[in-house]
Amino acid sequence: MPSWLALGFQDSSSPSMGELSCLHDHVMTIMFSVIILITYIMVYLLVNTKYYKFLSEGTFIETIWSMVPAFLLIILVLPSMKVLYMMEDVKSPVLTFKIVAHQWYWSYVVPLFKNFSYSFNSFESLSSYEFDSMLEEHSLDSDFPRLLGCSSDLFVPVNTTSRLLITSTDVIHSFALPSLGLKVDALPGRINQLFSNPSRVGSFFGQCSEICGSNHSFMPISLKVCGLTDYDNVSKSYLLDIVGDSLGGDFSF
Ligand SMILES: [Cu+2]
C-alpha cells in the first residue's frame, strides 16, 4: 500500500518482491561503498601535492584494481540472475487471469473454480467471468487512497501461484503492482506473462505505468488477495451473475 512521503519500496507482499527488496539493498550497499571510496580517492588526489616521481607502473596494484571491479560485477550479477529466473520460470500456476488494458480502464477475465463450471447446453461450458474495472472516486475526507479505488476488484487467492496474462486493445499500457513486485507492459497484439504468489491477504493497489493518453492517471488497479474460502464465494457470485444474465435473456414470458 503506498503511503505519503515514502521514499523506499512498499512493504513486500510476495516472495519475489521480498527478493527484489533484498537485491536492491545488496546493490545499494555495494554502490555506496564504491562511491564513497572513489570520492575519497579523488578528493585525496586533488588536495595532495606530493607524489613519488619514479612510480610509472606497478603490476601488483594494477592487477588488484582490475580484479576488484570484476569481482564486484560478479557479486552484483549473481543475485540479480537468481531473482530474474525465480520470477520468470514458474512451472505450474494454479489459476490463469487474463488482464486487458483499454483507454482508460482495465478488464479482467477470471477463472471460475472447476466444480462451478456450468453448462448452458451440451456445446457450451463456462469456465470464466469477464468484468471491467474503472476508476471510482471516493470522497476526499474518507481514508481511502485518492485515485486508487476501482469499481470492481480483481480477487486472487493467497499463497497460490497465479498466472497473469496481460495484453492491450489500443495503445501500450503497463500493469504494475509494486507491493507484489509485478510490472509488465500491456502491448496490443502481444500477450505478456507474469506470475503472482501473494503471501498475505489484503488490498493492493497499482496504476498504469506507461503514459497511455490523457486519462493515463485514472486507470488504477485494485487487487484483493483473499483466503481460498473467500475466493470460492467470489467465484460463486460470478457464476450466479452469469446464470442470472443468461436466464434473463433466454426465458421471457
Ligand atoms: Cu494506461
TrEMBL record:
Which Gene Ontology BP terms does the record give? ATP synthesis coupled electron transport
Q: Where are the transmembrane segments?
A: 28-47, 59-78
Show the GO cellular component annotation of the record. Answer: mitochondrial inner membrane
Q: Which cofactor does it need?
A: Cu cation
What is catalysed by this protein? Answer: 4 Fe(II)-[cytochrome c] + O2 + 8 H(+)(in) = 4 Fe(III)-[cytochrome c] + 2 H2O + 4 H(+)(out)
* Cytochrome oxidase subunit II copper A binding domain segment(s): 92-237
Keyword Secreted recorded: no
Q: Where in the cell is it found?
A: Mitochondrion inner membrane
Cite the InterPro entries for this sequence: CcO_II, CcO_II-like_C, Copper_CuA, Cupredoxin, Cyt_c_oxidase_su2_TM_dom, Cyt_c_oxidase_su2_TM_sf
Sequence ranges assigned to domain Cytochrome oxidase subunit II transmembrane region profile in this UniProt record: 1-91
PROSITE patterns for the chain: COX2, COX2_CUA, COX2_TM
**Classification via Gene3D superfamilies:** 1.10.287.90, Cupredoxins - blue copper proteins
Name any one GO molecular function.
cytochrome-c oxidase activity
Which Pfam families does the entry mention?
A: COX2, COX2_TM
Q: How is the cofactor bound?
A: Binds a copper A center.
Its topology with respect to the membrane? Multi-pass membrane protein
**What UniProt keywords apply to this chain's record, in alphabetical order?**
Copper, Electron transport, Magnesium, Membrane, Metal-binding, Mitochondrion, Mitochondrion inner membrane, Respiratory chain, Translocase, Transmembrane, Transmembrane helix, Transport
The UniProt family comment states: Belongs to the cytochrome c oxidase subunit 2 family.
Instruction: State the oligomer form and interacting partners.
Output: Component of the cytochrome c oxidase (complex IV, CIV), a multisubunit enzyme composed of a catalytic core of 3 subunits and several supernumerary subunits. The complex exists as a monomer or a dimer and forms supercomplexes (SCs) in the inner mitochondrial membrane with ubiquinol-cytochrome c oxidoreductase (cytochrome b-c1 complex, complex III, CIII).
Main role?
Component of the cytochrome c oxidase, the last enzyme in the mitochondrial electron transport chain which drives oxidative phosphorylation. The respiratory chain contains 3 multisubunit complexes succinate dehydrogenase (complex II, CII), ubiquinol-cytochrome c oxidoreductase (cytochrome b-c1 complex, complex III, CIII) and cytochrome c oxidase (complex IV, CIV), that cooperate to transfer electrons derived from NADH and succinate to molecular oxygen, creating an electrochemical gradient over the inner membrane that drives transmembrane transport and the ATP synthase.
> Per its record, how is this protein called by name?
Cytochrome c oxidase subunit 2
Gene that encodes it: cox2
